[in-house]
Structures are given as C-alpha cells and as structure tokens.
Write a structure and sequence with these properties.
The complex is a heterodimer. Chain A is of the alpha+beta class. Chain A is built from ten helices and ten strands. In chain A, β9 and β10 form a beta hairpin. In chain A, α4 runs antiparallel to α6, α6 runs antiparallel to α7 and α6 packs parallel to α8. Chain B is an alpha/beta fold. Chain B is 29% helix and 24% strand. Chain B has seven helices and eleven strands. In chain B, a hairpin with a 2-residue loop joins β7 and β8. The termini of chain B are far apart. The interface between A and B is medium-sized, with 19 and 14 residues.
C-alpha cells in the first residue's frame, strides 16, 4: 500500500499553501470582522485554476483528481475557513451536479465558465421546513407553457448573493413527495429571483449566506437539470461528494488551529518554561495531532474511492463526521492552550473555533452522517 | 527568445538552522524552496518569452537529488525545460565549481539571455552568475529591478547605493534579479499537471565534457558555527546626561557599535 502522495499532489499542496499564506491569510481576520469576502481573491484563485480542480480540461477544469481537490480545500481552510467553503460549495455543490447530470449544452453554457471561475456557483436546497429532511422541499416549479415558474424561498444558501449560477431543488409534483422534485439551473438576475436577508453567523462570517426568494420566476424547460422527478436523488448524490469537500475544510481548520497551538506552546513561558513541556498541554497537542491524522486518512481514502469509481457514500460520511468533530475538539483545545489570549480576537484561534462549529451541521449534520453509516452497516 | 534561468534550491527562509553531527549544516527534514531571488529571475524570463511570442525558458540547477523538486516547481510555473546537473564530484562544491558546470551546460544550448537571482538567501553567495558571465564571455548587469529587451539589446536598471543606474548591453547577456523586478506568479493547477510531461534532463560531469579536476573547489570550508545566543538587555540607570555618557561608552568600548 503506497501512502505517499504523488509529486503533483505535493506540488499542489505547497503551491496552495503558499498562496493561502501569502494572499488569503493577511485578509482572513478582517474579512471575518467585516462579514465581507474580498472577491479579488476569487479572481486570483480562478487564475490559478482552483475553481474547477476535479473537472476535465475540456470543461474548463484542471483535470485533477478528487484527492487533489481535497488537499486544495484543506490548505485554503487552514488559513481561512470561509475561503475553503467558498471553493467547496462552488465546486462540489454546483459544478459537480451539472457535470454529473447536465446535457452537453448545459455543460458548455454553465460548467465551463464555472470551472474557469468566470461564474461562481451555489446550491439552493435548504428551506425553513427542509433541513435534514431535504425531501420536504416546498419551492414549487409549476409547469407552464414550455417552461416552469418557481415560487418559494431557500435559506442558509452558501455563496448566495454573489454567486451567478444556482442549482435549485424544487417540487414539480407535490403529490409524489421527494420523488416529485427536480433540479434546475437558475441564473442570478432572472426576473422573479431575488435575495432575501443576509445571514449573520457565528463563524465563516466572510462566507456569503443569503435567502433565495423566487416569485413567479420563469425559467425554460432546458434549465431543468437531469430528469424530472430526480431532484432528491441529485441532491443526495451531490451531498455525498460535498461531504469530502467539507471534511477537507474541517481538516484544514483543525490543522491550522493545531499549528497555531504548537507555535504558542513553544514560545509562551510560564513557571520558567514553555507551556508545551507541561504534560497537560503536551497531551492536548498529542491528541489533537492524532485525531487530525486519523481524519486525514479517512478523507484521503474517501477521495481515493471516488477517484477509483468505487462507492464512497459510507466512507465520505465517516470522513465528514470524524473531521468535523475533530475540528470542533481541536479548535476548542487550541483556544484553551492559548489561555486568555486565545479568547481575544488578536489571535486567530477563536475565529477557527467559531468556524469549526458549522462543519458539524451543514451538508448533512453529524446525526445524518451517523444515519448514513448505520444504514450502510445494516443493509 | 531563448532564456536560461539559473536556479538554486535553498533552505526555506523560516527554517531553523542547526549543525549536524559532522559539523555541517543539518539539512534532513528541512523544507527547501527555490531561492526567492531566482523566482524573480524565472518570472522575468516567462514574461519576456511571452512578450516575444516564441522561444523557450530553460531552468538549470546543480545540486543533489532534492533539486528535482525545485525544477519541477519551475516547470509547473511555466518553464519549458529543465536541466539538473548532479555528480558525486560536486559534493562540497564552491562557487567556482558550480559556475563551471552551469557555464558548461549553457554552452550546449544557445541563449539570448541568462537570468539568475542576484544572491542566494542561504549562504549569501552572489558570485555564481557573475562567474558564469565571465566564463561565457558575455556582459552582465547585476541587482536589476527593471528589464527591457529590444532588437538584440537589453536595457536594465541596476539598484545601486543611493539610487539606480540604467545600463544597456548587447545580447547575449547575464542579468541578476533584485526584489522589485516583478511579482512572481504562482504555479497554476494546469501548470502542475503539465510539469510532469516537460523534459527534465539529468547531466553528470561526463555529459558536460568535464572531469572532476576541472571543477574541484578552490576554497576550503574550515568550519561552521552558530551565532552566539542573544544576551539579555541592560538598563542604564542614572540622570539623563550621565546615562547618555555611559551609553556612548558602552556602545563604543563594549558593543563596538560606534
């Protein structure tokens, strides 16, 4: 078994790390403070080809594998979790369903510019009454003439407001429940499609989170993605892959927090020595590093399975579950190790702790992940 | 335009320096990078080639096995070809040795311009590119912050004490890059994927028609030592006028700073 990363992946890691530390890092705290992303960073990431990593070159992507994508998200998140989720939501939640279910025309029209970074993507799935119960979506898509009319709202949509392209899950036949849902590709600016309130969050504050509001929004039939009635199936398959991206985000957050804590433990002195030498502190670091290592292996394995074309639903659920709980644990300990300073905004660890929490919730709560794993075991 | 870039792999500027058991510098487990000044040289080479519309950028480096990583990174950044000079006879090489092999490798090709960083951040060496220019018998302009190529000539702005000097020389020439010459690009994902398909040639001394005797170092390293640890600060007490007198005395006689 060869556990080593390929030369490309090592080069990708060091390139993205350099970019993250050089360009994103200096802005992360301010973006979090202001709850505003600096979109110049998106242009820089597009220039580097980070906006379509796992898609073939013919569709504007970098032609790399899912493992490379996971590493890129990890390195970005290590420095700024908001940047990690920006790329992850764009790539896994919007680009991927178009790649997997789109017609050739849809891929030309949407996937190419999305992968190239000319467009930013988002997924509109969640509603006030449809969180974990994703099949309970009420956004309606009424068939009219040779198109559809959308009515309803979506909430907590990542990248919303700034994103250009939205994959939206709507109900085309309420009588069939989740089997009567379909996916649609809707562009920002379509008449009848506006944004509702901006969500003010505990963490990933620079990530743009808004409501989507549809009022008699007309779209054409060729904007349906995949077959009629396959919306729920598309949503679930999309979330399966999105899990790897979020797991990578959580891993990056945890690694960033550990790196900060190790640096602090080596330099902060109390009772005449660096606090890292005290067993209580040292063992926290040891446990954090061990959990991070375990999370890394789970994620890389899930990405590898996906790259091999093997089923990866259970493994990606395990990876997301474990990595997100690890991120919460490690960041909390990182603040603890920093003591009073860790509680102030002068040090990045409090932001990392605030950022970590959402990874246990979105793209399938930890509870849902456990159900996925349970179902796979009891099949 | 055919441009050669001389590259050195150096310690990461954040790396902690320690001595190995044999008194040499501990290099195991140390993160290695492309010498930052060489990155400016590579970026300038890429821009000049892009502006000219044709030609190639070849990166050349002499050193041990890990140099391959630096060359692949340069290829991923946009260089077309790489040459890695590696030979056991180059163990303990000094600037004379390195310049000899680089010049020999460059002579095998035909370059309009040779770019390098003006010095290396690890040992502070700034001789190699200068020696190469002499060996190739071409003009050189050093510590350059601006370059313009036109019709077989290059105009370069040199950073000098208290200002700058603009120099024009005919091609081929050697230029060494100073910080501020440009903003180096990051490798793109596509570049990383393409790097493995680009040629990376390995050359030993025999491929360069050189024998060990031709490149034997002309300097001998006696020893390495780490700098003395930082002393605690000292507060000079007393009335202002007296304290100033005492400070001046200490600076002059003890710290030997003035």
């Amino acid at each position: 078994m060869d556990f080593s990363l390929g030369e490309e992946q090592e080069l990708l890691r060091s390139t993205v790390r350099q970019f993250a530390e050089g360009e994103v890092g200096p802005l992360a705290a301010a973006m979090d403070e202001r709850e505003e992303y600096d979109w110049d960073l998106w242009d820089k990431m597009a220039g580097m080809g980070l906006t379509g990593i796992p898609f073939p070159e013919q569709y504007g992507g970098a032609g790399m594998d899912n493992l490379s994508y996971a590493i890129a998200v990890e390195e970005l998140s290590r420095v700024c979790a908001s940047t990690g989720v920006l790329i992850s939501a764009h790539t896994s939640l919007c680009c991927w369903p178009i790649y997997a279910y789109g017609t050739r025309e849809q891929k030309e029209k949407y996937l190419v510019p999305l992968a190239e970074g000319a467009l930013i993507g988002a997924l509109g799935l969640t509603e006030t009454g449809a969180g974990s119960d994703a099949g309970a979506v009420k956004l309606s898509a009424r068939r009219e003439g040779d198109g559809y009319v959308l009515n309803g709202t979506k909430i907590f949509i990542t990248n919303a407001g700034r994103a250009d392209t939205y994959v939206v899950i709507a109900s085309t036949d309420p009588s069939r429940g989740h089997k009567g849902t379909s996916a649609f590709i809707v562009a920002k600016g379509t008449p009848g499609f506006t944004f509702g309130k901006k969500e003010h969050k505990m963490g990933i504050r620079a990530s743009s989170t808004y409501e989507l509001v549809f009022e008699e929004c007309r779209i054409s039939a060729d904007q349906m993605l995949g077959a009629d009635g396959s919306g729920f199936k598309i949503a679930l398959a999309t979330l399966d892959g999105g899990r790897i991206g979020i797991a990578a985000q959580a891993l990056g957050i945890a690694q960033g927090a550990l790196d900060q804590a190790v640096g602090y433990a080596k330099t902060r002195e109390q009772f005449g020595q660096p606090v890292g030498r005290f067993q209580a502190v040292g063992w926290m670091l040891a446990d954090a590093a061990t959990r991070i290592q375990a999370a890394r292996h789970l994620i890389y394995h899930a990405a590898w399975l996906k790259d091999q074309g093997q089923s990866y639903s259970k493994e990606s659920a395990m990876a997301k579950l474990f990595a997100s709980e690890t991120a919460m644990w490690v960041t909390t300990k990182a603040v603890q190790i920093h003591g009073g300073y860790g509680y102030t905004r002068e040090y990045p660890v409090e932001r990392m702790m605030r950022d970590a929490k959402i990874t246990e919730i979105y793209e399938g709560t930890s509870e849902i992940q456990r159900l996925v794993i349970q179902a796979a075991l009891l099949r | 335009m055919n441009i050669a870039v001389l590259l050195k792999q150096t310690f990461d500027t954040e790396a902690k320096i320690s001595l190995a058991a044999d008194g040499g510098i501990q290099s195991e487990g140390v993160n290695l990078i492309i010498n930052p000044y060489d990155e400016f040289a590579l970026e300038e080479a890429l821009r000049l080639k892009e502006k000219a519309g044709s030609g190639e950028v070849v990166v050349v480096s002499a050193g041990g096995p890990r140099v391959g990583e630096a060359l692949r990174t340069a290829l991923a950044t946009g260089a077309d070809r790489a040459i890695h000079i590696e030979d056991p006879a180059l163990d303990g090489a000094d600037e004379f040795s390195v310049a000899a092999v680089l010049a020999a490798a460059l002579k095998k090709g035909s370059f309009d311009l040779i770019l390098a960083g003006w010095r290396a951040v690890d040992d502070g060496s700034g001789q190699v590119a200068i020696r190469v220019a002499e060996l190739l018998d071409v003009p050189q302009v050093n510590v350059v912050t601006a370059v313009a190529v036109d019709d077989g000539r290059v105009t370069a702005t040199m950073d000098i004490e208290g200002g700058c000097q603009v120099v024009e020389v005919p091609l081929p020439a050697v230029l060494t890059a100073q910080k501020g010459l440009n903003e180096p690009r990051y490798p793109s994902m596509r570049g990383i994927m393409q790097a493995k398909k680009k040629p990376l040639e390995h050359l030993a001394l025999s491929d360069l028609d050189l024998a060990a005797g031709d490149t034997a170092p002309k300097t001998k390293l006696i020893c390495h030592s780490l700098p003395a640890g930082r002393q605690a600060g000292r507060v000079i007490e007393g009335e202002a006028a007296e304290a100033v007198r005492e400070l001046v005395r200490v600076l002059r006689e003890e710290a030997k700073a003035i």
